[in-house]
Amino acid sequence: MEYSKGKLISLVALRLVIGWHFFYEGMVKVLNPAWTAKAYLLDSGGFAKPFFEWIAFNPSLLAVSDFVNAWALTLVGFFLLLGWWVRPAAIAGMLLLGMYYLSHPPFPGIEYLFPIDGNYFIIDKTMVELVALGVMLSFPTAHIIGLERLFKKTKPSLQ
Amino acid sequence: MDQEKDKNKPGEFNRRDILKGLAAIPAFGLIGYGLFKEIGELKASRINLLGQDDSIIPKGAPLVLQGETIRLGIVGCGGRSRYLLKALGFLHPERIDEYAGWARTNKYWKEYMEEFFAQDNLNVRITAICDVFDKNARLGVEIGANLYRNGRGGAMDTIPKRYQTYQELCASPEVDAVIIGTPDHLHVPVALEAARNGKHVYCEKPLSWTVEETFEVRQVVKDSGIVFQLGHQGRQTDSYQVARSLINRDVIGKISLIEVCTNRNDPNGAWVYDIDPEASPDTIDWKQFIGPAPWHEFSLERFFRWRCWWDYSTGLSGDLFTHEYDALNQILDLGIPHSAMASGGIYFYKDGRTVPDILNMAFEYPDRDFTLLYSATLASEKKRGKVIMGHDAYMELDETLLIMADPKSTRYAEQIEKGIIEPHKPLFSYVPGQDRVDAITSPTEKYFAERGLLYTFRDGKTYDTSHLHLREWLNCIRKGDGSQPSCDIDQSFEEAMTAHMGTISYHEGRRVYWDAASEKIV
């Protein structure tokens, strides 16, 4: 795929900021052994609330969920930043964001204890980031700016 | 085009490839710096203030000791005793059907029923019931038979026997232990009768109605060697146990003032309970209800709303302050204060009651250099917490626990200056169920903590504190080695005397003192 310089800069910037966000969120959780999503899960709303509460109330499930969440965030961010395995990372990132969205859907009539930094109706920042990761899937850049350029220098894409 | 400038072959990297391939590496440096700062702050505060020691968190519920089935007699079978019966695993079959119906559409009732059925079996049977109101006695009998937690038509255990008087119940060989859920003025007469018959006693709070009987019941309980527990189930609340550990570690510094409150604003909270249409002189043994109280003509109001009259009640001091006092006695080993000063009045519920609906009491502890302040209203729900104020921080208690550093703290001055501790943010929070104490709280936890959400948890399981309190009492009975539960007769004596000092001060309009040497209120 060919991009103009402007397009390439925008797309790479988008990939890097999303990667940065994921990586930092993940690392803070990984480095803090006391971190748990329990309170967040208990505060969930909407039709999937019972599912998230079920996780929160089940100590072994919660431990697995905390571990997977922290490391998945970290790795997704790591690969997006580096520009390597961006496709699987973006898909995993979309799955994570999908879960966050389902646990706290910004639908009218649902109230959360956790403060929300804005006003949302159906669409919130989680959804925006999820769609942006979809853009990453359709417009890859890692083969131009990123480790993929070094690992698989496939000629056709460099024409 | 950027892409077209790339002319080298696959597998060969030029300088541009390297630059573009590793373009994001500097980002890791910056992120690493951010992480280092954030985690560093978190760790510093943990190590400085608590270390990695989470041993202060109560772990798990005590086991149910195995042994003989304990046969219980219930004296006074109104609302509170029926709650205790539920905590023992006994619900009326009709309520089980009713709640199960609600549980199908209502989450609260679903959880309520799940918790009830998951509650550990305490291996007790209800063999005796006594209540002066026929309806309460009948309900008690029907609940007591429901050993298997069934709905209507389900299998029932042997039906408990109804006794007309508590004296007969206490003398019954079918009873090992007695639960007292009568009005305040009958607590001691029933407890004395039970103890003299060698029956173990679980008595609802407060311990006593008069000062004199408080001495007597302490003596008789001790002489009899029975296991005695006063019904302050707050003894089982996790956050109070954590609070005790934290204060022992001097986390909040020198304590000078403790403030506790009652904030209620509805008729039920002001003891204006419904009058049952089944109640009449024919269905109530009025003479037995009066007991040691001054004689009064039959009155449905007095029978159902007995808390509003000194004739049967201990007022705000005995009824509600004792909850606060016992929590603090558990945390700080308060003991009986040096002096008490009270004032208040009947300012809102001018319904013929004799006990005040506004009460303010100050208890002095000169040996400990602090004052305990109690302020109660039955006409406003403005939330005023339970706060222990230290020079370095204050502790706010609920089911949850929050510690906020004082901006002028000596102990935390350095950390405050460095920005490690922010005085307006919680220094610690403890939310039951999180199984840990947090230094520097995340916004989520803070919100949960401030709103008092969540329940009493032990190892991920929800527990009713009354259930744990009864369990502790039953375990001591089964041990049979003379061990007493947490709210034993000595703790109860302190609770009752403190409350009486406040009440006497209110009545006499003067400061009263505790003469510790001769054990007298003067």
Largest sheet entry of chain B: 11 strands, mixed
Number of helices of chain B: 17
Q: Biggest interface and its residues per chain?
A: A-B, 44 and 39 residues
Low-pLDDT residue intervals, each spanning 5 or more residues of chain A: 155-159
Number of helices of chain A: 7
How many β-strand runs of chain B?
Answer: 19
Explain this structure to me?
The complex is a heterodimer of chains A (about 160) and B (about 525). With about 160 residues, chain A is mainly alpha-helical. Helices cover about 65% and strands about 0% of the residues of chain A. The longest helix of chain A has 27 residues. Chain A starts with a helix and ends in an 8-residue tail after the last helix. In chain A, about 35% of the residues are buried. Chain B is α/β, with parallel strands linked by helices and about 525 residues long. Among the domains of chain B are: about 45 residues; about 190 residues, NAD(P)-binding Rossmann-like Domain (Rossmann fold, 3-Layer(aba) Sandwich), CATH 3.40.50. In chain B, the strands form three sheets. An eleven-stranded mixed sheet of chain B has the order 15-14-13-12-11-7-10-9-8-18-19, sandwiched between helices. In chain B, a hairpin with a 4-residue loop joins strand 9 and strand 10. In chain B, helix 4 crosses helix 5, helix 8 runs parallel beside helix 9 and helix 13 crosses helix 17.
